[in-house]
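1st attempt posting a full record on here, be nice pls
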Amino acid sequence: MNGGIGLWLSRRAETTPHRPALIFGDRSWTYGSWNAEVQRVRHALRAGGVSAGDRVTVLTLNEPEFLTTAFACWQSGVLFVPLNTRLTGRELSYIIGDAGAHTLIVGPEFVDTIDEVRDELPVRRYISLQPREGWTHWEELIADHSEEGWSQQIHDDDVAIIMYTSGTTGLPKGAMLSHGNLLWNNINALHVMETSADDRTLVCAPLFHIGGLNVNTLITLQVGGLIVLMRSFDPEAVLDNIERHRITGMFGVPAMFLFMSQFPDFADRDLSTVRYFLCGGAPVPEATIKLYGARGISFLQGYGLTETSPFATLLPKDDCERKVGSAGVAPMYTEVRVVDLDNKPVAANVQGEITIRGPNVMKGYWNRPEATEEVMDAEGWFHSGDIGIMDEEGYFYVVDRKKDMVISGGENVYPAEVETVIHEMPEVADVGVIGLEDEKWGERVVAIVVPSPGVELRPEDVIAYTDGKLARFKMPRQVEMVEELPRNPQGKILKRVLREQFAEG
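the predicted structure (as tokens):
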């Protein structure tokens, strides 16, 4: 039997073929009709030379074809590589090249971006969801292929997905998540989320993130529920869809729920079918918890990383007010601990690095054994780089980031990458990038710049320079000019000092 996660769809197609599986706008699929389309894509990919172990990359918004391609890959032993739609051509070129992509499937909004760097890519087959010159059209690609499946032996330890996450060096790393990683993440989650075939899940967070893909999208399909897919987040459209489709749950980052609550007629919207909302990326502010609580909706929060598929801890919805700010407790089949610099567990309420061990932890980084060794110790613990504490009840709190990562609107931004681009400006002598608290985005990217001697440099010049070189969510929202950056005796920028200085000012 095919042991991979692609089995979830094919077995549902056998046991509940007429049950609704996916809605996108005015299009809909049952489990039977959707799996038939997946088989056509499987045949089309194989006819184009894709074999087990090859990489297929997808650059689209939340389109049905994204999930269809993913399941076609997972049923075939092909590695699925989703691409962040917010990246520039230069950033995408590195990732596609690093993955050694055989086939690239692209939404219409991103064809021009890829064409700009096409000469740099190793891709052998380019597929567009809309007709474009020089590209194979998706509909023509799959039109004449069979809907018959075929058996493919897949093991839990086989890699299912390579999901790229930024690194402290500025170069993204591909986290290899196995079929077993994704399965055990969902087993952990089911003990808290109680997802069932009666759930109707709204998916509007980007699927290219592990949060959008595997917090409640795949788990809903695993248990035979319905996915209502939105191309992207829009607060009014989310509220419309909740009412129209009787949505029971949705994943988002705190800013998304804030924007929904700020919509003019939010108080009059019917949210009675929602069991709870799932939230990650940052703790939900107490004011937001109380606002939705007054509507009878609780938040189920969690902490995790791409490398942990993603759940490392889960905060049950009944604890969301009692434990405001907490990331929750370790799930059933995963261990979490806080350790000191000697990798020894610390006492309750003592700060240390959060480490995770369990069947949901990645196999490692694609083509980066040295990077894997940096985060995986000899006992199998993944070192998150996040600083946290565990209280007397076993609840974890994330208090700082060892690697100075900024989370803005749910997106991970590594200062080193932003600093590298700004350093390219001849007018810049030195730069340090930090994150500061932001009401809308959780954190905003702030660049502290030392201009070159004798140069007049304006904040807007720095921001304009990064436009097109960095994804928009990585661009600084604030630039401050200083004469000198604080550094320790080894020359390292004292980011803590900068955060304290500019948070006050």
